[in-house]
Design goal:
The complex is a heterodimer of chains A (274) and B (460). With 274 residues, chain A is mainly α. Chain A contains ten helices and one strand. Chain A has one domain. In chain A, helix 3 packs across helix 4 and helix 7 runs antiparallel to helix 8. The longest helix of chain A is centred in the last third of the chain and has 29 residues. Chain B folds into two domains: 223 residues, Rossmann fold (3-Layer(aba) Sandwich); 144 residues, abc- transporter (atp binding component) like domain (Coagulation Factor XIII, Chain A, domain 1, Distorted Sandwich). In chain B, helix 3 crosses helix 4. Chain B has ten helices and 18 strands. Chain B has a six-stranded mixed sheet with strand order 5-6-7-3-8-9, sandwiched between helices. In chain B, strands 12-18-17-14-15 form a five-stranded mixed sheet. A four-stranded antiparallel sheet of chain B has the order 10-11-13-16, with no helix packed on it. By secondary structure, chain B is an alpha/beta fold. Chain B is globular, with a radius of gyration of 26 Å. The chains are: A mainly alpha (274), B alpha/beta (460). Strand 1 of chain A pairs antiparallel with strand 4 of chain B, so a sheet runs across the interface.
Chain lengths: 274, 460
């Protein structure tokens, strides 16, 4: 028999992950619902998830290979489409996860007001949907790589680490945003700006070597820069990512943990505020 | 001693009214700046409200508690606290068991998904594991009777189908405590009866239920005990029938003391004299006139295992028939009607009192009656078979389909079990009346009652 006590006093240090674990089935249920609904009555189904990065790829291949000519040396010996596409799918994974997790609480207001479940399930289930979409794009990338004759080396063993970091980065920003949106709707409108400007502040379409030397330190504050350069390194080899990126990963972990606590703090007020 | 399932101690909930301060980013920054310069935090200028204040109660296993009160009395807030949707400002609630909160029917349903997918979705939201849902899936489909529609997206369902499916899921949730908020007030009469019956089954199978409803009939039929809330405080707590009387009395006296006198405005005109077509009362017709087939009004339980009952008694047979007729003959208005309840008394320390309630087809509780006024001889304490019989006199109830509920009390005062809507029977017009001259020109008399009144006509 489960026994519980409801009161206003909560243990501030506990994240109540045990309860989250007991509701794990719901994470999967929400994720599969989102996937089903999103591509419901479409002919291409989940293949749509790779059309967005693909169109971006076509446009930027044209710009960066023909209009602004990037020196292939600076790309680490990889053809531009592979370079850009690998960056793009990481960025889309991050930005769609951040956007969807960030708005997940607002979207599910009707549920939050009517029933109890650990609210953290909402952003977490989004990471599952976004991951599924990422995998589809990744398979496409892998396919293109093999066709073009690029075979990954031993570095590919590190790939899961960078994919996981990619997920955590998107999720932690998403968790922060979702909790902030509950209190301050302003953050709801900030999300598109983060997505649109962020892509230019991250070496997605251009190599990090294009950044002027004196501004270069800024890039180590951007976790996605580290994730993308690590992702490329695991697939294509070449020079390993700079150790300074470790700093950005520390930032991610800090954002992640503080996000969990802030979310936990807001969680109890959500039903009264939405 | 049965165990306590929910124990609420002094729970209070505080709300700030009006525009909350510091709820947009701009205001939060503004407030922070202000407090920086003023050094003193400003007091809350918004109005405040205790939506609940010092509410305490206890519910035992297998008990059904009704929560009644007027709009804004705090009923839904209380339910939300019990469902963990919102936290109490003060006080604690202790719950032993798994809670299924049903604050809305069809919760979590997604219109684009099929019936089957929605069963799994809303089942998981209600806290069931996938295997648990799979185990009861067949029962759910049978309960709602939508075998052929389970692959159809629910957006194509009629509203009746939608609710049937939604309630079917709720009824099969594997929980110990069920919280219902006004869920019974949806759907047609047949669906409401089915829901209420199911809820009653849940209670009698040892589940604990809290029901918030404005429909006093529902509360009376399902809940043995009730809590009356007024302005966030507990006004009364005890046996349902006492509470409902308090509540109705209070509502009536309050409406009488209200200053504004009822005035007849234009829109209460019955006929549209000037043919303006607007602001005229519309008259609705009742439910469809289709023939209803009812099963015989007898229920007999063959085995001791599945009969309704508890440690004090179990019911063997319930029957309604016209006196001097067989059970399969129709009951007409001119017949005295006999309602009999056979039961077995299991202990020799208490008296068992049976009560009945009749609900008509529109869901109105017509009356309740019980053996409270009988002086039991000591022999009625003995273990053994008993039969309590009530006679409803002829020429009292009008022709309608009535549904019988049984209320069981021990030692006259303690309501120990309700069996809602156990069976239905129909009272019909007699053949003489149907064939009379009168009926050629006039429709049957409306109304719940059809008494033969004594009329006196005098020429003055």
């Amino acid at each position: 028999m489960t026994k519980k006590i409801i009161s206003s006093r909560k243990n501030v240090l506990s994240l109540d992950l045990k309860k989250l674990f007991s509701y794990r089935a719901l994470i999967y249920v929400f994720a599969s619902r989102d996937l089903k609904v999103q591509y419901y009555q479409t002919f291409l189904g989940i293949l749509w998830s790779m059309i967005q990065p693909l169109t971006g790829l076509l446009i930027f291949t044209f710009i960066f290979s023909y209009v602004i000519k990037v020196n292939p040396e600076e790309l680490g010996g990889v053809p531009y489409p592979l370079f850009a596409f690998s960056g793009l799918i990481c960025w889309y994974f991050f930005s769609s996860l951040m956007g969807q997790a960030g708005t997940s609480l607002m979207q599910s207001q009707y549920l939050i007001r009517k029933i109890y479940f650990p609210k953290l399930i909402l952003p977490i289930s989004k990471s599952l949907t976004c991951f599924a979409e990422f995998i589809i794009s990744f398979l496409l990338l892998f396919f293109i790589m093999l066709i073009m004759g690029y075979y990954p080396g031993i570095n590919i063993l590190f790939l899961p680490v960078f994919i996981l970091l990619n997920l955590i980065t998107g999720l932690s920003v998403g968790i922060w945003l979702s909790a902030l949106t509950i209190r301050y709707r302003d953050f709801y409108y900030i999300i598109p700006y983060l997505v649109n400007f962020g892509i230019w502040l991250t070496p997605v379409f251009y190599p990090a070597t294009l950044i002027p030397e004196r501004l270069k330190f800024l890039i180590y504050f951007n976790p996605m820069a580290g994730v993308i350069s690590g992702f490329r390194w695991s697939l294509f080899g070449g020079a390993p990512p700079s150790v300074y990126y470790l700093f950005s990963f520390v930032i991610v972990i800090v954002i992640f943990i503080t996000g969990l606590y802030y979310f936990r703090k807001m969680e109890t007020k959500i039903a009264d505020l939405v | 001693m049965t165990e306590v399932v929910i124990k609420a101690q002094n729970i209070s909930k505080f709300y700030r009214l009006g525009k909350p301060q510091g709820d947009t980013f701009k205001e939060a920054v503004g407030l922070a700046l202000k407090s920086l310069f003023n050094k003193k935090r400003q007091n809350n200028q918004g109005k405040s409200l205790w939506a609940l204040k010092d509410v305490s109660f206890e519910i035992k296993k297998g008990e059904a508690l009704g929560i009644v009160g007027r709009n804004g009395a705090g009923k839904s807030t209380l339910l939300k606290i019990l469902a963990e949707i919102t936290d109490p400002t003060e006080g604690t609630v202790e719950i032993n068991g798994k809670v299924a909160a049903v604050l809305e029917i069809g919760m979590g349903f997604h219109p684009e998904l099929s019936g089957t997918e929605n069963v799994y979705l809303s089942g998981s939201i209600l806290g069931m594991k996938t295997e648990e849902i799979r185990a009861v899936y067949e029962d759910i489909v049978n309960f709602c009777g939508l075998e052929n529609f389970m692959d159809t997206p629910v957006k194509n369902y009629s509203s009746g189908m939608y609710m049937r499916l939604a309630f079917a899921v709720i009824a099969h949730v594997n929980a110990d405590v069920f919280l219902f908020d006004e869920v019974l007030s949806v759907g047609d009469a047949a669906f409401r009866f089915k829901c209420q019956k199911k809820i009653n089954e849940l209670v009698n199978s040892g589940k604990t239920i809290i029901l918030v409803s404005h429909n006093l009939n529902d509360v009376a039929n399902i809940c043995t005990r009730s809590l009356l809330l007024k302005n966030g405080k507990v006004k009364a707590y005890g046996q349902t029938f006492d509470i409902l009387n308090d509540y109705i009395e209070e509502s009536i006296s309050e409406s009488l003391t209200q200053k504004d006198v009822i005035s007849y405005s234009d829109d209460t005109k019955f006929y549209d004299e000037n043919d303006t077509k607007d602001k005229v009362w519309e008259r609705y017709y009742g439910e469809d006139d289709t023939m209803q087939k009812l099963p015989l009004p007898i229920i007999e339980w063959s085995s001791e295992l599945d009969t309704p009952g508890n440690e004090f008694f179990y019911i063997r047979k319930i029957q309604v028939k016209a006196i001097n007729k067989n059970t399969d003959e129709k009951i007409v208005i001119d017949d005295d009607i006999e309602v009999s309840i056979d039961f077995f008394k299991r202990t020799s320390d208490v008296f068992i009192d049976m009560g009945i309630g009749l609900t008509d087809k529109s869901g109105v509780l017509v009356f309740i009656s019980n053996t409270r006024d009988i002086v039991h001889p000591d022999s009625h304490k003995e273990i053994g078979h008993y039969c309590s019989k009530a006679i409803i006199p002829c020429n009292m109830l009008n022709s309608s389909v009535y549904t019988l509920s049984i209320f069981v009390a021990k030692n006259k005062i303690d309501n120990i079990m309700n069996l809602s809507y156990v069976l239905s029977f129909k009272i019909e017009f007699s053949d003489e009346e149907l064939n009379s001259e009168w009926r050629k020109y006039y429709p049957p008399d409306p109304g719940i009652l059809k008494p033969k009144l004594k009329w006196i006509v005098q020429k003055l």
